[in-house]
Amino acid sequence: MSQIPGRPKGIVPFTVLSAPQPQILGRPKGNSDARQRLITAALNLFSHSSYPTVSTREIAREAEVDAALIRYYFGSKAGLFEQMVRETLEPVLARLREISAAEPPNNVGELMQTYYRVMAPNPGLPRLIMRVLQEGDGTEPYRILLSVFEQILSLSRQWLQASLVDAGLLKEGVDPNLARLSFVSLMVFPLIAPPVLMRQFGIFSADAEGLQWLALHNVQVFTQGVLGVPRSPL
């Protein structure tokens, strides 16, 4: 990420969010972190390779654990994939529930900040999501992702409706659906665009600090626009 001199006033660096770790009863002795290592290994492998090409043996080898633990903890490769998605995206869902219940829900940058907090330590996840959703609705990973995303989309739709439309923040004549599309596009595109393209814009990494600046910029674009008033000719 190119350096931007001086931090704007009022902007507090955010901390990276991670999903809470569920307690597993009857966990095998001597390898208490095996479950999380499998989740981490699966996220890494599925982010770089398609679902059918990643085997349970490969995941176990990446995690440096016995392959039998995949069945023990998750039941199957599909079960591991589902838990990987749900646990990684849980902070987004949890924060959406919180801000949807808040009064008044008028901070349009909160959702974007939360999304980037989750994605900063998982840079391959957005591309994984897009790849699976583009593969078609007949696959197991598509069904799993859709079940999770239906919750996220429903909550975000409710929140944006309350934050933009019900709060009267939209300018007259602006289509609410197109406004939501613009917001999501600003938020998601930088994380799914090819790195070579982002480098052309001076963006070299998607770390927490860089995403903080990106979130600030996106909110400014969304709320204030980028064009100034044309100067009158002298």
Task: Please specify the SSE layout and strand pairing.
Layout: H1 34-48, H2 56-63, H3 68-74, H4 77-101, H5 109-119, H6 125-134, H7 140-166, H8 176-192, H9 195-200, H10 208-224
Helix pairs in contact: 1-2, 1-4, 1-6, 3-4, 4-5, 4-7, 5-10
Describe this structure in words.
With 234 residues, this protein is an all-alpha fold. The chain has 2 domains: 31-75, Orthogonal Bundle (Arc Repressor Mutant, subunit A), CATH 1.10.10.60; 78-226, Tetracycline Repressor, domain 2. The chain has helices spanning 34-48, 56-63, 68-74, 77-101, 109-119, 125-134, 140-166, 176-192, 195-200, 208-224. The longest helix is centred in the middle third of the chain and has 27 residues, at 140-166. The model is unreliable at 1-12 and 23-30 (pLDDT under 50).
Query: Strand content of the residues, in percent?
Result: under 5%
Count of DSSP-assigned helices: 10
Head-to-tail CA distance between termini? 39 Å
The stretches of 5 or more residues where confidence is low (pLDDT under 50) are 1-12, 23-30
State Rg.
Answer: 20 Å
Largest sheet: none
Q: What would the CATH topology of the largest domain be?
A: Tetracycline Repressor, domain 2
The CATH class of the largest domain turns out to be Mainly Alpha
Series of H and E elements? HHHHHHHHHH
Average pLDDT, to the nearest integer?
77
CATH superfamily of the largest domain, please? Tetracycline Repressor, domain 2
Mass-distribution shape:
elongated
CATH arch. level architecture of the largest domain? Orthogonal Bundle
Count every beta strand, where a strand is a DSSP E run of 2 or more residues: 0
Report helical residue fraction. 55-70%
* Whole-number total of structural domains: 2
* Class per helix and strand makeup: mainly alpha
